[in-house]
């Protein structure tokens, strides 16, 4: 999330919180595709991490991007920490370890998404390369220890950094040493949201498997295909995971609100200052627990919006749905991830087929799949088959959905071609992570340094 919200409208009751989510309902002709992708900046000389400050730091990249794009700066305590397009059509932000993120504009087609990503990468290269900086498209930092990883000067991250070790063993790794590709998608009603939430929660482990791209940690193989996927198993289980209650046949906005109310908060913002609220749940905050501790110590709709942005389930519900399972990766993956989910969820025939395929899958089965994927990737077992077999069926459904959408580019091609990189994973039976591991043990000569050349933007 590029910019925290400061909406000062007071909250009168829980119904308003439910209404906030329901306000995301949109007619189908208003459905859009918002793609986010993160990447690790590194110095070409020595493959070292890039700090925030200095003449060749991340601040300099942001200032160069601001001058080039004319976007508005996002400031935190007087420091530039991001950029936002003046009309809200896209933003650039920093993750805790300097991961550089584009939060894309809400677009109508995957063709537009690919053009947006390509333009962004060209723009950031133009600014960064004269500084001796490039970007790495992986799901996990392959070389630097946590101590070697820079820290970005964002107030919310200072609070999270103090809090994470209290609630899990891998939260700091999640913050500072992982990257993702995400897509944000719309729904037209509570029923439509429920169907999409349930299908995408069940299929999120498959997404993690297909995009598995983080097999190295601190210059060595880590024994996993998606280190990032494994990290999420013990980051903060109060606010992350598959959310079993979402599998209920009558799941709705109110259920998500009730869950969110009992998750500890991170912060509230008052007069530009971030106040640590990790000792309170949002429900306690609404009951007046912080009335005497922070200025205007009663909750606002801005506080609620910010709280929702600090919840990390595999599929996150805001006024849209966020698909959160995939590792970061090279340019083709930035196009493939939205194609995968748009194909499954934005066409009625495809959504029906995906729902039918997964209707008998239980929460325990989906959770077992999620737990197996970080190590085994698409070879993870499922019932009497593997995820590779499941992937064939799911990709066929996604292809039908994209074909039915019939969104063609100027050359007359529809969006189905963006699935080709995932078809290749299934056809060869190996993930990107396995391909990297093979290279490490053969032509890379037991070194991870070549990854900075072969997987760089």
Provide an overview of this structure:
The chain has 457 residues and is an alpha+beta fold. It is 42% helix and 16% strand. The chain contains 17 helices and 18 strands. The chain has helices at residues 14-22, 58-69, 110-128, 155-167, 171-177, 190-210, 227-231, 253-261, 282-286, 301-308, 331-345, 348-358, 363-376, 387-405, 420-428, 432-441, 451-454; strands at 33-43, 48-49, 72-76, 79-84, 91-94, 100-103, 133-136, 180-185, 216-217, 220-221, 240-241, 267-270, 273-276, 312-313, 315-317, 321-327, 381-382, 385-386. The strands form five sheets. Strands 1, 2, 3, 4, 5, 6, 7, 8, 15 and 16 form a ten-stranded antiparallel sheet that branches. A hairpin with a 5-residue loop joins β5 and β6 (100-103). α6 (190-210) runs parallel beside α13 (363-376), α11 (331-345) crosses α14 and α12 (348-358) runs antiparallel to α14. The chain is globular, with a radius of gyration of 21 Å. The relative contact order is 0.15. The mean pLDDT is 97. Pfam families: GCS2 (PF04107). InterPro entries: GCL_bact_plant (IPR035434), GCS2 (IPR006336), Gln_synth/guanido_kin_cat_dom (IPR014746), Glut_cys_lig_pln_type (IPR011556). GO terms for molecular function: glutamate-cysteine ligase activity. Catalyzes the synthesis of gamma-glutamylcysteine (gamma-GC). Its EC number is 6.3.2.2.
